[in-house]
Amino acid sequence: xxxxxxxxxxxxxxxxxxxxxxxxxxxxxxxxxxxxxxxxxxxxxxxxxxxxxxxxxxxxxxxxxxxxxxxxxxxxxxxxxxxxxxxxxxxxxxxxxxxxxxxxxxxxxxxxxxxxxxxxxxxxxxxxxxxxxxxxxxxxxxxxxxxxxxxxxxxxxxxxxxxxxxxxxxxxxxxxxxxxxxxxxxxxxxxxxxxxxxxxxxxxxxxxxxxxxxxxxxxxxxxxxxxxxxxxxxxxxxxxxxxxxxxxxxxxxxxxxxxxxxxxxxxxxxxxxxxx
Length: 276
Known about the structure:
The chain is an alpha/beta fold. The protein is 39% helix and 17% strand. It has a single domain (5-258), classed as 3-Layer(aba) Sandwich (Rossmann fold), CATH 3.40.50.
């Protein structure tokens, strides 16, 4: 079995920390596995934390001979499962990663013990990030500036400048051709007709100041998935796990405990660092 460290699986760079029941984290559009950095210390003390940099994002490879769609990202996640010998995991998806996580659960329900959807929707993105506007901005401004402009609108009022600069630097790594294909696929994805088929315990989390995927979208997810609960994180925008990590980690930890997924004989968890 592959232990801790950074490894390449297919076209994805994957970061593994800790041992135990696997927690698989999938990031969003143009973001990276580092957007889950505040969860590593807390959860790797009790779980096997697996953070995937999807192909074309962050340090992962971006060959032009492959596709960058929701469907192919689902297969990339499955490849990680197989390489790490994971039968089933708690699957956590942010934004576009939430769409990937929904699609993965529908395609491979036996592989998902519980589902966590953060700043996600059942269809595309919120009205503030219209696909036509995103593609136009990429064409006119370049993918780096276009992605960074979205990032500046993504955080809530409590986010500090260092956190925002971190996020802007991370999204600058995604090439134009990857971003264009991914956003088009995300816009076309629609799980609304099949949400009732998701039967695993599901936690839906959204920031109360999220304008990228507004709370109304998360409410629609929670209403469509039978065994689900909605949690709204105050003073947070699109990235509650970064903006309010202590609150987010408590919500995730409590959800896992309620599902009986909390490991026994665990060491005391360490509070995540607050950003400034």
